[in-house]
């Protein structure tokens, strides 16, 4: 795998070890497929992130919802 982007900082070949802690507390801010900044909405029961090219990712879809 390894050719994706970090969803915390947008850098190539992510997620990076330093970003893992951020991702455990925050929703993804960058698209894993293209590295673009995403629109993020946090709600009481989770979050969703939308990439203009790759669509919506919901916390319930990735098992991160509370």
From TrEMBL:
UniProt xrefs under InterPro entries: BsaP_C
Entry cofactors: iron-sulfur cluster
Top-rank lineage group of the source organism: Bacteria
The keyword Iron belongs to this UniProt entry's keyword annotation: yes
Residues of the Biotin synthase auxiliary protein C-terminal domain: 38-63
Entry keywords, A to Z: Biotin biosynthesis, Iron, Metal-binding
Function according to Swiss-Prot or TrEMBL: Required for the activity of the biotin synthase BioB.
Entry's family note: Belongs to the BsaP family.
Protein name: Biotin synthase auxiliary protein
Lineage: Bacteria, Bacillati, Actinomycetota, Actinomycetes, Mycobacteriales
């Amino acid at each position: 795998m390894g050719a994706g982007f970090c969803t915390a900082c947008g850098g190539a070949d992510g997620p990076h070890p330093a970003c893992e802690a951020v991702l455990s507390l925050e929703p993804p801010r960058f698209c894993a497929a293209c590295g673009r900044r995403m629109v993020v909405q946090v709600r009481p029961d989770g979050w969703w992130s939308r990439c203009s090219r790759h669509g919506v990712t919901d916390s319930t879809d990735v098992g991160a919802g509370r």
